[in-house]
Design brief:
mainly alpha, 2 helices, 0% strand
Length: 28
């Protein structure tokens, strides 16, 4: 659903935060 938002957050954040967000539901 939030594909554009997820892509922007991952690109702006490091791999560490990116994984944390994906675990929270950013990847969902």
């Amino acid at each position: 659903m939030a594909r554009g938002k997820s892509r922007r957050g991952f690109a702006s954040m490091p791999k560490e935060k990116r994984e944390a967000i994906a675990r929270k539901g950013g990847r969902s």
